[in-house]
Amino acid sequence: MLDFNVEFNNLIYIETLVLLPLKPYGPHILPKFLIKPIRVYKPNLDRNVIGKENKNCTIIYQWVNLITGKIYIGSAWNGSVRLLSYWTPSTLKINLPIYNNLLYYTHNNFALAILEYLGKTGTVTKEFLLSREQYYLNIIFKSDKDMIMNNYPTAGTNLNFKHKSSFGLNRSGSLNTM
């Protein structure tokens, strides 16, 4: 903490400057979107708008880290529920690159783009939703793989995901709640 005492006309003004460790902020790069987005949001400022505008909409979306340039492609059956989950503490604790990046860089250093509106929730099939997400995943997995936050090249899967060996033990016998 730094104190700056300033004397002005026999009055003393005390200003305090608190130096806190800050999360990385800038310099921001120009985000690269896979196509011209329908809508781009600044997540730290537009959280409420994101919820309102994507309510009951099936969407394909893209997160862009404005510091590293890494991108994440996702799809949502109900856009507002999925997108607002990126602010939920329990969701952010999940050990996946998108959540780790959001925690480390904060929402201030991201852009969120809606790539496609596929219709109202329930008007398209899950297969169609996943096929559209797969289209964008194919594009990014053919390009620079170091710039991708998606773990899996296949939409809607956790292919190659392995639970810890203790997971099965925790789900058996008296520990199983079912």
Helix content: 25-40%
Q: Major β-sheet, in short?
A: 4 strands, antiparallel
Please compute the radius of gyration using only Cα atoms.
Answer: 21 Å
Shape: globular
CATH fold description: GIY-YIG endonuclease
Derived structural class: alpha+beta
Q: pLDDT under 50 segments (min length 5)?
A: 1-8, 11-22
Strand content: 15-25%
InterPro entries: GIY-YIG_endonuc, GIY-YIG_endonuc_sf
Protein name: GIY-YIG homing endonuclease
Organism: Amanita bisporigera
GO molecular function: endonuclease activity
Q: How would you describe this structure to a colleague?
A:
The chain has 178 residues and is of the alpha+beta class. It has one domain: GIY-YIG endonuclease (3-Layer(aba) Sandwich). It has six helices and six strands; from the N terminus they run βββαββαααβαα. A four-stranded antiparallel sheet has the order 3-6-4-5, with helices on both faces. A two-stranded antiparallel sheet has the order 1-2. β4 and β5 (71-76) form a beta hairpin. The radius of gyration is 21 Å and the shape is globular. The chain starts with a strand and ends in an 8-residue tail after the last helix. 21% of the residues are buried. Mean pLDDT is 81; it is low at 1-8 and 11-22.
